[in-house]
TrEMBL record:
Residues 6-131, 155-255, 262-369 form the Alpha-D-phosphohexomutase alpha/beta/alpha domain. This is Phosphomannomutase. It is an enzyme of class 5 (isomerase). Belongs to the phosphohexose mutase family. It comes from Streptomyces iranensis.
Amino acid sequence: MPDLSQIVKAYDVRGVVPDQWDESLAELFGAAFARVTEADAIVVGHDMRPSSPGLARAFAHGASSLGLDVTEIGLCSTDQLYFASGYLDLPGAMFTASHNPARYNGIKMCRAGAAPIGQDSGLAEIRALVEGWAEGGAPEPAAEAGTITQRDVLDDYAAHLRSLVDLTAIRPLKVVVDAGNGMGGHTVPTVFEGLPLELDALYFELDGTFPNHEANPLDPKNIVDLQARVRETGADIGLAFDGDADRCFVVDGRGEPVSPSAITALVASRELAKHPGGTVIHNCITSWSVPEVVKENGGTPVRTRVGHSFIKAEMARSGAIFGGEHSAHYYFRDFWNADTGMLAALHVLAALGGQKGPLSDLVAQYDRYAASGEINSTVDDQAGRMEAVKAAYERREGAELDELDGLTVTTPNWWFNLRPSNTEPLLRLNVEARDQETAAEVRDEVLSIVRA
């Protein structure tokens, strides 16, 4: 019996192939997805990992065995699968393990219109069905199996993105893109085609063994090559995509990283110009600058928990036009509330190309505070350490505490958020202050309690 508690996470399925799951289990997941969504048809896509085509095809067979018609879009980025789900109005499944090492694979699932499926919105039911069938035998097939057909939606995806951001009148830009041998190497050439961009392509060969570096730009060591190439060539900007190309990280013309909070603020200002008075979602770890910029541009900021299911649910509830996270996930109402790093990248290119100065000058107005970045501490007792930190600060004069997501402590000059990892024995700390010295002091003070 497979241990599904190890691979069914809060938002997706993720595990080592074939040790934790394989094609026979993928077929059961396809049948369970068909049963839970109660759809007549679905769309399935996959990334470039060696195990992805077989897993995706097994999933398609599982769904079609219960009578569903399956549209296979083949190689795609995760946001391209979300596009297909919205464009075709079908539930979708994407086979990817994002930035995880090569031996991993997973499934990100959504309902029609790219509405998320998570633990509380269908994933628990899918897991229960798969567990039952794994123990007692596969479900009875339908009297007539559904069809499995192929469709290429890459051109439609690119056209939709380009319809949302006008890049035709920008000045020519030299752009270095590091695809990390991931799906950005598949999508970027088509999306950028015909635009006034000189593309310098790093690691565009699709290779799910990641021979050059991990496809996780959140780790500074994985953008070193991009930074060096930008500096060497005098490029205007560098972009780095993760393995399934749904997240995009930015470096400026000096090769310096631009914080995702600054990108969130920049894109928010542009979206508010298109949709005056709109609501913008940000999680509780984004910079103070994000709600400030939203208010300055006539919008309403709404703070929420970390995680795409919370962001997407709040966007749907509030009708928000845009949402951003510190992890470089960017969500757009014009993209079915789904996250797409590519659309955020196009906004940054449009903003940069629409004025004469360098990117560093452009983003300076959105990068107003000193931040620690995310600091992880391995602890034996997450709850006990959290309580110790809470006890230390609830008596602090002028400090406000909230527990929307972990513990956030806010004063007029600084704030920090401390939250437990859902999957590892870690506490994650983020600190922001009005100056670097204060940020360092608060960081060290909190860590002294966490690591006591």
